[in-house]
């Protein structure tokens, strides 16, 4: 029984996926050569690939650019007041809504910039909050 279990486990976790894994590995290494990754320590590589999980939300606020808004506009002050009262999980959900990811890229928060723009609608009460994830723009109706 032990031999059967050992052979079965070996097949399921090694032999049966060898070809698909080799195909994946070949494609991955073609786009991301292993020599490039050798310059990183394991924790640094994890940061580059996964991004930062700990976020200074006040620094994020300082990095925002405003279009059709001023930093002291009531809408902006209300937004940040509500935002900073949110639990960490909801803040990360906002980040995912804005950027498509709940983490800050490996380059760091000091280089992560997004914009808040007024969509300038005739009736802002009829608009929902929206975002352009490619351009990192939050469209915040007044």
TrEMBL record:
SUPFAM superfamilies named among the record's database cross-references: Hect, E3 ligase catalytic domain (SSF56204)
Originating organism: Opisthocomus hoazin (Hoatzin)
GO molecular function per UniProt: ubiquitin protein ligase activity
Active site positions, chain numbering: 134 (glycyl thioester intermediate)
Identification of the protein by name: HECT-type E3 ubiquitin transferase
Enzyme type, top EC level: transferase
Catalysed conversion reaction: S-ubiquitinyl-[E2 ubiquitin-conjugating enzyme]-L-cysteine + [acceptor protein]-L-lysine = [E2 ubiquitin-conjugating enzyme]-L-cysteine + N(6)-ubiquitinyl-[acceptor protein]-L-lysine
Keywords associated with the record: Transferase, Ubl conjugation pathway
Any one Pfam family match given in the protein's UniProt record, by short name: HECT
GO BP, one annotated term: protein polyubiquitination
EC number: 2.3.2.26
Occurrences of domain HECT (ranges): 1-142
